[in-house]
Amino acid sequence: MVPISYYLILAAALFCLGMFGVLIRRNALVVFMCVELMLNAANLTFLAFARQNGHLTGHVSAFFVIAVAAAEASIGLAIVIAVFRSRGTVSIEEIRTMKH
User: Fold this and answer.
1) Contact indicator for 21, 33 with CB cutoff of 8 Å
2) How many helices (H) and strands (E) does the chain have?
């Protein structure tokens, strides 16, 4: 049996990679993928604790996170496509200029 600390270390590493991707990258599609990576790290944490405790609550939480991630991805990609059609780019710097 794999210790829970291994799962938590992997989840922390995935979350940090996603966080740095959101902070550093300028492409909106890459930022969305990094947000999905962070949500998957949260799922891994929920499932690791559910496995340790033997309860199904972690599985239910992971299911809801997956549902929210799917909704976020569909709405986010629709916005990115709309911005690409109007601006011709998916760069976050160009999207910020839409405020003016």
Assistant:
1) yes
2) 4, 0
Reduced to 3 states, what is the DSSP secondary structure of residue 54? coil
Give the residue from 67, 12, 20 showing the smallest Cα distance to 45. Answer: 12
Please choose, from the candidates 15, 85, 14, 67, the residue with its C-alpha nearest in 3D space to the C-alpha of residue 59.
67
CB 36 within 8 A of CB 15: no
pTM: 0.83
pLDDT in tens, 56-68: 888 999 999 999 9
The answer to whether the CB of 87 falls within 8 A of the CB of 22 is no
The number of beta carbons lying within 10 Å of the beta carbon of residue 20 is: 11
Residue 83 C-beta-side C-alpha neighbours within 13 Å: 20
